[in-house]
Amino acid sequence: MRDSAKAMEPAAKDPEREAAAPDAAPRAASARRRRRRKGPLRRASAELGARLVGAAAPRLLALYVWVIFRTGRWRYIGREHLEAMFAAPCFIASVWHGRLAPIAMLRPKARRAVALISASRDGAILGRVMAHLGAEGVFGSSRDPRKADKGKGGAAASQRAVAALKQGAILVITPDGPRGPRMRAKPGVAAIAAASEGWVLPVAFSARWATEFGSWDRFLAPWPFTQGVFVFGPPIAPPPKGDEAALARHRAAVEAAMIAATREADRAMGRETPEPGADPHAALEPDPAEAEGEAGAASPAATA
């Protein structure tokens, strides 16, 4: 009983701790004042850093693209398809988002090139990179179904892209951008082809020495002095306007041709091709044989 009573007695007070207690509140207030003073400085430093990165990044990325293209040992498969398209009034170069890096260097200097780019912060940087490489940017994105109230200017951008094609430009488009699924073409490429009457050229590249990032698109960044290959698939004729079934077949044909070109390029370089993402069009897909028939149509050079 005596032990239990002693355990219930309050603990003895520490005189030194009590003497230090009155200083705790002023110290905490002083720390809060220091944090408030540092807050604006930190924000200003962050804003300055972001501006410097935004100004330097496009030039550095453009320089990187120039270096890998000029120092790499590149070969071309299906080059006759590319040359046939250069002779056409206009065409759409269709490339996966993850295989975009050196594509701008393929443009003839005398030919206007336009790239359809997402309306985002990364897209703004990419637009400046393309400008340094001699191409124009048309900014707009497909609507995010999770944010139905926020448009991204996709329809207006498509109209400007069609206008550029009708004026004789080359349009570069990433049909799986800007959010994927990876290596799955959206309907926009078929709609633009129909409206502009422009043929679609499937384009892919691969490199023996490169870094593949873990991003959704498995972005492939070649190293300088790499061995590399470009693959150009047979051009795909534009579908008729207003024919939904023909638009669906065209989209499927573009997707199938691009996947085939990517796999051929990766085989040539000893790389494993990433698996395409889940197919959002699986329930509505046309017969695969019909899609292949679209891809096998004769190009303008062959019918001239």
Summary tags:
47% helix, 7-stranded mixed β-sheet, two-stranded antiparallel ribbon, 304 residues, alpha/beta, single chain, 9 helices, globular
Describe what this molecule looks like in 3D.
The protein has 9 helices and 9 strands. The mean pLDDT is about 85. It has about 300 residues and is an alpha/beta fold. It has a 7-stranded mixed sheet with strand order 1-9-6-2-5-3-4, sandwiched between helices. Strands 7-8 form a two-stranded antiparallel ribbon.
What is the number of strand segments?
9
Fraction in beta strands:
5-15%
How far is the N terminus from the C terminus?
A: 111 Å
Taking the sheet with the most strands, its summary is: 7 strands, mixed
Strand order of the largest sheet: 1-9-6-2-5-3-4
The assigned structural class equals: alpha/beta
| Low-confidence region ranges | none
The SSE order reads HHEHEEHEHEHEEEEHHH
Number of helices: 9
